[in-house]
Amino acid sequence: MSICYLGIGSNLGDRRGKIKEAVKKVNSLKNTKVLKFSRIIRSKPQGGPAGQPYYLNGVLKIRTALSPFTLLKNLKRIEKDLGRKKTVRYGPRTIDLDILLYGDNVIEKRNLTIPHPKIFRRDFVLKPLLEII
Q1: Which of 29, 74, 113, 122 has its CA 20 to 30 A from that of 68?
Q2: The one catalytic residue among 15, 42, 96, 122
């Protein structure tokens, strides 16, 4: 079992509701348990099209036996189940789930980089992460 930290955010629709649904779905993944959930903070969109609504963001601490790649696959499925559609890069979304840290693993693959490459440049990730670490 590994301790992981996930970033979670939403800026479309019922943002708080989508975040709560996503937390429940993460907690229901096989061999996975949500241990802590940070406060939800409001943040401006970083990049992407102008005029996007503000985001609600937080961080989850989980324990999982899933591999990093299996966890990523499951997180992408949860995003899709909750209505996320791929549009423009950094565009608005119903839900966004990112693996920030996965134990002490360092992974640099085309579809997965751990630690998340922008973790220390985004206050909306760093503040909630520091709250629960």
Answers
A1: 122
A2: 96
